[in-house]
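Example pasted here:
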Amino acid sequence: MATMQGVRGGDAVLELFCRRGVVPSNDGAELLRYKTKIPPQLSWRRGNDLTDTCTVRVRRPTSSPLRRLLHSRMALLRLHLLRPPPHPLAAVSSSSWRRALPTAATASRLLCSSQPAAAPSSSSSPSIVGGLLDYLNESWTQFNATAEAKRQLLDAGFELLSENDDWDLQPGGRYFFTRNMSCLVAFAVGEKYRVGNGFNIIAAHTDSPCLKLKPRSASFKSGHQMINVQTYGGGLWHTWFDRDLTLAGRVILKAADGSFAHKLVKVSRPLIRVPTLAIHLDRTVNSDGFKPNLENHLAPLLATKYEATTVNSDEKKGSNSSKIAHHPLLLQILSEEIGCGIDEIIGMELNVCDTQPSCLGGGNNEFIYSGRLDNLASCYCALRSLMDSSKMSEELLNEKAIRMVALFDNEEVGSDSMQGAGAPTMFHAMRRIVDSLMHQSMGEGALERAITSSFLVSADMAHALHPNYPDKHEEYHRPELQKGLVIKHNANQRYATSAVTAFLFKEIARIHNLPVQEFVVRNDMGCGSTIGPILASGVGIRTVDCGIPQLSMHSVREMCGKEDIDTTYKHFKVFFETFSDIDRKLSVDF
């Protein structure tokens, strides 16, 4: 039996028991009891012991956040097999009880099949797939993705900067800043940096197609409480029907002293759903196709009847109040999740999210099933490669350039925002870095010389060959899963790749024996685009467009190959470590 005790304060005591068929006896306290039957093909593995029943006993806590935490943890156990931490939970101290609980984003990995995961590679570069699953499960929105990236950078020793302050940068230093909590720029300065040396950059985007709450989200249809939403980006909206959905994002709070606070929120339990119409009422759906009206048919269902809340009568009368704009029930749920009063919520920006955790799947557990792979998979590979290539001072000892990662918001809708790639965020950061590192040097055109020496990798997911639709790919450019990064080409500059930039990126792969694929769209099909051309033209920087191959792009649930994640991480890491040496061997303008 594994027991974890903690939260000793007042009447709140939480104990987690995991044992085959054993339920703890009632000790006289008022109990909340949950029995969770794990399907026979999914077992909680701990050595040779298999657990098919998990029971949680709680002396009913007065704290609503603790009750919500309990519900969310047990919901995860009902959904998936959780692989527990390697050490017994009984040894966990009360101060760290919250981190020790099984979550989809920390100690546990989720498997969608009963076959155990492959053993870690003995290679000098261990797999980062587990870390990616954790990152995806934390990052339900662009705000959460940026906050998690911030946390990881701080843990890695990077220094947080503010765009509003003076920067005092030094060679060998590692820094980052955020904008709007949905855009992030991180960089490490080489010890041998000299004014005029270039930037080696990997750029990606934090946003994904989703549904977003309208400013006035409260809606009633035939006695049902509905949520008004608007579509963001070019999603496969039919995939959002009949999913266990919830809400996440950020809220603005007003404190009693008149100050304001920006808080992230994530309701972990299934909260809303967009039900499809039964085939008995839509007999031609299979022959004519599923063609929902996105205004009339995409509103999620929250509840069937009004539940009384603490909203007082004066608040209900305010025509411009958020209490009228949003269902009181929704505001109550958010306030309990955040731990604030309903009156304190004065603004919100929430995304509709799928609650199913990211996991491994397939016959050999070789695939990653998840939402938001486009483009959080690229974000994570870029972040990890920067952190791991500069975590020790000696790793920057011989570096002459500046290694940078830039993560932007709003790519899915054109990048034209303050936090998007269309803003001069990266250009301004480069200028400020050069200015701060100039010190007494007064070299002419320092920033311009740095830009011409710089190189950008625009990382965005790529279209893998679909086995059921092979004719959708050009015959000689068919990227496949598990075969490495895809370099994207387009003669009409929908991608920024040139012969020079493609050669340099492939040369890195050749030297380190990494696979590379190439993609060109068919002449009879339209071509998407990326932040690559935006940054290449806006900054004037050499750029290659590349991506991890995936299927089901822009679906609520996407998939990619596990091996491609590790290959991408290795490619990005050696890009940071070796590009400066490779680049100086090629002369184009002379």
Q: What stands out?
A: The chain has a mean pLDDT of 82. The chain is about 25% helix and 25% strand.
